[in-house]
Amino acid sequence: MIIAANLKTNLTRKSTTEYINSLEAYIKSSGVSQDVLVFPAMSALDSFNSSYLSVGAQNAYPTKNGAFTGEIGTEQLDEFNITTILIGHSERRHILGETQESIATKFEYYKKLGYTIVYCVGEPLQKREAGKEEMMEYISAQYEGIDTSYENLIIAYEPVWAIGTGLTPTLEDIEEIHTDLKKKSYAPLLYGGSVKVDNAKEVLALKNVDGVLVGSAALKVDDFCHMISFAEELQK
Ligand code: 13P
Known about the structure:
Layout (H helix, E strand, L loop, with lengths): L1 E5 L6 H18 L4 E5 L14 E2 L18 H6 L4 E4 L2 H5 L5 H13 L3 E6 L3 H5 L2 H10 L11 E5 L13 H12 L6 E4 L4 H8 L6 E4 L6 H14 L2
Helix pairs in contact: 1-9, 8-9
The protein binds 1,3-dihydroxyacetonephosphate.
């Protein structure tokens, strides 16, 4: 399974290094065989070069370099041998205003370079409440311009209303949506949105859930390791 931590705008360069060192020590000593991914804040990217986990970028612009104030490109990612990127996260869609078109352009750029892309989809509460059909239409629009058969693709289903709120869909709902989304792409499908130690095992055990993308509950490295241990126990 794939167990991923999105650290968002949290931790410093120093505390991220400590985090990754502790995580690596845990994976090494416990013989973990799951794929572990960490997305640190931009300023904490570094050459971690670990064979036990992968470090990815939460965002980058589709460019090598240039005049794109506030963004980074592959020149900066290459410095740290980063070849994994998160694209389409709901915070970038809804807070930073990324459109599906710009997201698809970014996807295409990083796909051509062979990056592992964790591509996020998910509906806001209003779409969820509008019923299954409207909700699935909304999510389907997030697949526009995306090569769903890309070999290095990982998809993360993250309902916007479940992110950072402590709310989650029921286990039945997660399984049902994942089963529907698997028809759109065979790529590994992660669930994200208020995953924590208390619910991670049940979520990971669901059919068509190939891992989790964890935000706030991954900030404590011991908790994140605990969630990795659940995946290890399940050995799906
Ligand atoms: P939370 O786990 O804090 O709900 O965040 C999920 C998320 O957005 C991961 O990308």
